[in-house]
């Protein structure tokens, strides 16, 4: 889907792009990595339980998945399929410089360009209530559901009391 986007896609690896995350990163027109980031590639993995015939089918499926992943890496890096396969066989971890050297990343994120950015209030950014309310509002809007405001305003202490009653009733 990222490859089909009409605009320019810039992928920024600010921490870790491992496993499927590394494959997704390859969809960027430009891939930038933080100086302290890591990128990791490996062979596809699965768990299976079954007989010999099922195991053969799973091996075949894993081979196809690997070929598909190699396609993404090859398009981005220009490396040979054998080289990429060997890197995957060895579960290769790359810092930003190594990732640039191998063609997985195009450049380093310039921290100086980020100096004037306004930092969000962390408590607001990671507020579970705000995230949940935002999600509920988006779903309500998408499904054309009118939200009723101020329904049953109940104090949290009253709700905890009700929960305690339920817990005690279940334990009897």
UniProtKB/TrEMBL annotation:
It comes from the Bacteria. Keywords: Hydrolase, Protease, Serine protease. GO terms for biological process: protein quality control for misfolded or incompletely synthesized proteins. The keyword Signal does not apply. GO terms for molecular function: ATP-dependent peptidase activity; ATPase binding; serine-type endopeptidase activity. One of its GO terms (cellular component) is endopeptidase Clp complex. InterPro entries: ClpP/crotonase-like_dom_sf, ClpP/TepA. The keyword Protease applies. It holds the Pfam family CLP_protease. This is ATP-dependent Clp protease proteolytic subunit. It comes from Ligilactobacillus ceti DSM 22408. The lineage of its organism: Bacteria, Bacillati, Bacillota, Bacilli, Lactobacillales.
